[in-house]
Design goal:
alpha+beta
């Protein structure tokens, strides 16, 4: 299976932000229609929205930069990962991998589709070998846990509040 950053993966990742934007607009509109326009309420929602927008854009660009130009392949029959990073091919056997840490928010950890925060669908895997660490993000592989399960490698799922790349 080959994976790469696609427009579909990026739109899917930004889906939480889109939903969040619609909810904030509806809330501001409903409160504005019922109570009249209150500048303090608008400022509260603007700050709340901007904080979430900045956090989503930060993690999205961080994930994009980490995997820009990367084509990731899983070859189960040969028990190896193949990384094509800017036309430099790197092959890693499953036996060379010490562990894979997958950082995700609790809702993704539980497998839930319910989101409160617009960045909940973002998650990343750090693959540790003897000499290096390689990063795969959810912009490349939409469901990292699903793809890495049953490969016979040590996977550690880690809950975190904000899944930035460590």
């Amino acid at each position: 299976m080959k994976f790469r950053i696609t427009l579909r993966n990026q739109i899917s990742a930004l889906g939480g932000l889109t939903s969040f934007t619609i909810i904030v607009i509806i809330a501001v509109w409903l409160l504005g229609v019922n109570d009249g326009f209150d500048p303090e309420l608008f400022i509260f929602f603007a700050i709340f929205y901007l904080a979430n927008l900045i956090s989503v854009l930060f993690i999205h660009f961080q994930y994009y930069n980490a995997n820009k130009g990367t084509v990731f392949s899983i070859e189960i029959d040969k028990a190896q990962f193949i990384f094509n990073i800017n036309n430099t091919i790197k092959t890693i056997s499953f036996s060379e991998i010490q562990e894979v840490d997958i950082y995700m928010l609790p809702s993704v950890y539980r497998g839930s589709n319910f989101q409160l925060l617009p960045f909940e669908q973002y998650h990343c895997a750090i693959i540790y070998t003897q000499n290096e660490k390689l990063i795969i993000t959810s912009l490349v592989v939409r469901n990292i846990v699903k793809e890495f399960n049953n490969l016979g490698i040590k996977i550690i799922k880690r809950k975190c509040f904000y899944p930035y790349i460590r």
